[in-house]
């Protein structure tokens, strides 16, 4: 049985890494009590809270946190008609936070995620690990059997080509979860009691050309390098699908990162995931996705971006055209999604006018 | 998987003896080797007699035996670290587990000795998942599963061709790295097994490895010898080349390669700085190999392992032969190896 860490008494770190360059984006519909436990690690940072659901409800933010909060009314006001690309009644709405941020880095976390303990019992500062992951290179072109070669105590193994040892810039740091694992509904139904108790002490780069299921519960990324690709799609209210927002973003992000020569890491840090969502509710949301992903995966595996696509936005627009062309036949939803992908980029560019080439 | 669940009759443990005195080595592995058949191949260049403790079911092969089977002209293929490949050749079992003779069992974080043999066989017996990355690593192990977003059609996996283990204490670093960080020891026990994705290249170390001989035996090629190859791992690349071939062929045939557990504890041997004094050929050869393997496409017509090796050898000769004689030699050795494999394994 694994338990969350007790963070009472951990001193606040005033010299927290990148505290003026990173925003923490949190989608919520209930409350932000979980932030109390994260206080020693997260208080130095600015929060962007995206309030989903009923905008008339007030979300209480614990004392001492510096934040900006957006509810649905704010989203509609800021984006006007383009607000249609932001999901409602689904945590996918969090990507609005990415769009309005002005920082270089984003850390996003769910409101049912607490601080984990490492095997020695020490509280894991997840954000600090994410920052370390993002600040050091990735190695997608050749797999290192000792995992992240840039970590303290590790290195490249014998046979690892020297010309590849500089690595590439890291765009994404994908963290994991102890306790309630991120299973789909069928697996949750079959194994309702399974808990993840295995602490795998590694960070690794996902090789170029390999897709993975990106979970949005404990995720950080370099907004300047890959931000526009982090669109979490059309989910929730009025949509035929849910719980595929982060998956969709992850597949788009990986294809684009591979094309642009950026790295994606997975592994540490762990957070403690406390709440198992209702598997029957999940099944209804995921149902179509389970069938659709059989076609979506080959689509992404064979997606080839053109040489002319050199910015993230260009790559993303190209991808949206391919989605419209190749996936609309599966369901008209993909036609809508392709349009929403374009709207997202338009909105992104409007809110983030180009300051560099 | 406990060792009682493994069918010991399906496994050969192949040890290449580069040291004459195997007493400490075999005694330390006794709890995990007993009940298994061992094949010990003595490096033909080793002059002293082997010292093997009692109580093992073992067949020992030395230079005369090697020459008898492959002919004197071919015996050079099996010198140094490559002697173990002779063991792969003459084995009759389904699985091979091979560990360098300077390694002993490691301890896991709970202080329990790791049964590397059981872990390797378990890795080989469970499917691999090269087509999509599972973020919780091995989905078939106790307490884990496929995560949300993992396509259902890919959840039965593919056959596992090889299991690449790791090393605590002295990791398999190259000479320049170890010479620079003389005090560095690997103390990180990463509790995971994972499949190396399709098309991803990796350096496979021969120090602690297992494979499905029935599935991919001929792909374990003793081929690349660097000039001045020596008796310490820092002075060889044979396993790394073998691994590049093995991974490429596995990818082509739809098999998987796993990496991670088990760990072994690797002891000090040799001097990285000394090894540095020799011109490090390996570095140049790896640089040339990487773009070659990256671009290589085996023909659709290569549907079995032997054909794949022959096609690969052809491509090596054509595309790399002019870069360095080591590659031409490797290509010839690969072809010869397949011939030997077929002749040894068809008779009887």
From TrEMBL, chain A:
The record marks 158, 165 as: Required for activity. It is an enzyme of class 5 (isomerase). It catalyses: UDP-beta-L-arabinofuranose = UDP-beta-L-arabinopyranose. The keyword Lyase does not apply. Belongs to the RGP family. One of its GO terms (molecular function) is UDP-arabinopyranose mutase activity. One of its GO terms (cellular component) is cytosol. Glycans are attached at residue 158. InterPro entries: Nucleotide-diphossugar_trans, RGP, RGP_fam. GO terms for biological process: cell wall organization; plant-type cell wall organization or biogenesis; UDP-L-arabinose metabolic process. It is found in: Cytoplasm, Cytosol; Golgi apparatus. Its EC number is 5.4.99.30. This is UDP-arabinopyranose mutase. Probable UDP-L-arabinose mutase involved in the biosynthesis of cell wall non-cellulosic polysaccharides.
From TrEMBL, chain B:
It holds the Pfam family RGP. It is found in: Cytoplasm, Cytosol; Golgi apparatus. Its EC number is 5.4.99.30. Its main location: cytoplasm. GO terms for biological process: cell wall organization; plant-type cell wall organization or biogenesis; UDP-L-arabinose metabolic process. GO terms for cellular component: cytosol; Golgi apparatus. Keywords: Cell wall biogenesis/degradation, Glycoprotein, Golgi apparatus. It comes from the Eukaryota. The record marks 148, 155 as: Required for activity. The keyword Cell cycle does not apply. It catalyses: UDP-beta-L-arabinofuranose = UDP-beta-L-arabinopyranose. GO terms for molecular function: UDP-arabinopyranose mutase activity. Belongs to the RGP family. PANTHER family: UDP-ARABINOPYRANOSE MUTASE 5-RELATED (PTHR31682:SF4), UDP-ARABINOSE MUTASE (PTHR31682). Probable UDP-L-arabinose mutase involved in the biosynthesis of cell wall non-cellulosic polysaccharides. This is UDP-arabinopyranose mutase.
């Amino acid at each position: 049985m694994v338990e969350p860490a007790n963070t009472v008494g951990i001193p606040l770190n005033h010299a927290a890494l990148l505290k003026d360059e990173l925003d923490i984006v949190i989608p919520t519909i209930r409350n932000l009590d979980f932030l109390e436990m994260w206080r020693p690690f997260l208080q130095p940072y600015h929060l962007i809270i995206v309030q989903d659901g009923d905008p008339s409800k007030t979300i209480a933010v614990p004392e001492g946190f510096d934040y900006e909060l957006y509810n649905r009314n704010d989203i509609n006001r800021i984006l006007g008609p383009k607000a249609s690309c932001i999901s409602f009644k689904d945590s996918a709405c969090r990507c609005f936070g990415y769009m309005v941020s002005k920082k270089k880095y984003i850390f996003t976390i769910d409101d049912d995620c607490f601080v984990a303990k490492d095997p020695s019992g020490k509280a894991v500062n997840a954000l600090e690990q994410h920052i370390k992951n993002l600040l050091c290179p990735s190695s997608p072109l050749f797999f290192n059997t000792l995992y992240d070669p840039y970590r303290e105590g590790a290195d490249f193994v014998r046979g690892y080509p020297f010309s590849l040892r500089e690595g590439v810039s890291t765009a994404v740091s994908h963290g994991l979860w102890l306790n309630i694992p991120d299973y789909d509904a069928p697996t949750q139904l079959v194994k309702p009691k399974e808990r993840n108790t295995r602490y795998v002490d590694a960070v690794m780069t996902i090789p170029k050309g390999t897709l993975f299921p990106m979970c949005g519960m404990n995720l950080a990324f370099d907004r300047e390098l890959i931000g526009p690709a982090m669109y979490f799609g059309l989910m929730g209210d009025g949509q035929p699908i849910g719980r595929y927002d982060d998956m969709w973003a992850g597949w788009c992000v990986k294809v684009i990162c591979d094309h642009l020569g950026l790295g994606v890491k997975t592994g540490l840090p762990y957070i403690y995931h406390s709440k198992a969502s209702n598997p029957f509710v999940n099944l209804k949301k995921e149902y179509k996705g389970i069938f659709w992903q059989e076609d979506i995966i080959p689509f992404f595996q064979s997606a080839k971006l053109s040489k002319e696509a050199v910015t993230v936005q260009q790559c993303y627009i190209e991808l949206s055209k391919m989605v419209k062309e190749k996936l609309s036949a599966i369901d008209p939803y993909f036609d809508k999604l392709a349009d929403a992908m374009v709207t997202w980029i338009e909105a992104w560019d409007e809110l983030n006018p180009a300051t560099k080439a | 998987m406990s060792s009682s669940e493994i069918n010991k009759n399906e496994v050969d443990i192949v040890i290449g003896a580069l040291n004459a005195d195997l007493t400490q080595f075999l005694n330390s592995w006794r709890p995990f080797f007993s009940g298994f058949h061992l094949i010990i191949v003595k490096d033909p260049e080793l002059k002293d007699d082997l010292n093997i403790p009692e109580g093992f079911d073992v067949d020992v092969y030395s230079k005369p035996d090697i020459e008898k089977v492959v002919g004197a002209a071919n015996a050079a293929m099996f010198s140094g670290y490559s002697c173990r490949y002779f063991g792969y050749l003459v084995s009759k079992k389904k699985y091979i587990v091979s560990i360098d003779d300077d390694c002993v069992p490691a301890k896991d974080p709970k202080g329990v000795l790791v049964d590397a043999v059981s872990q390797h066989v378990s890795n080989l017996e469970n499917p691999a998942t090269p087509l999509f990355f599972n973020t919780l690593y091995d989905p078939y192990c106790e307490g884990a599963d496929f995560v949300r977003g993992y396509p259902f059609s890919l959840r039965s996996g593919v056959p596992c061709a090889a299991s690449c283990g790791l090393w605590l204490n002295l990791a398999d670093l190259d000479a320049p790295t170890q010479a620079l960080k003389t005090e560095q020891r690997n103390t990180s026990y990463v509790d995971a097994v994972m499949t190396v994705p399709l098309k991803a290249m990796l350096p496979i170390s021969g120090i602690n490895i297992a494979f499905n001989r029935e599935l991919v035996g001929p792909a374990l090629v003793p081929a690349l010898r660097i000039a001045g190859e020596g008796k310490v791992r820092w002075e060889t690349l044979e396993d790394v080349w073998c691994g590049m071939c093995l991974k490429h062929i596995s990818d082509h045939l739809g098999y998987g390669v796993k990496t991670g557990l088990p760990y072994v504890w690797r002891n000090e041997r040799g001097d990285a700085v000394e090894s540095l004094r020799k011109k490090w050929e390996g570095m140049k050869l790896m640089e040339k190999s990487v773009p070659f393997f990256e671009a290589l496409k085996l023909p659709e017509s290569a549907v079995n392992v032997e054909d794949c090796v022959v096609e690969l050898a052809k491509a090596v000769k054509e595309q790399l032969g002019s870069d360095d004689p080591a590659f031409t030699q490797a290509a010839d050795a690969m072809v010869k190896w397949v011939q030997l494999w077929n002749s040894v394994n068809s008779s009887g």
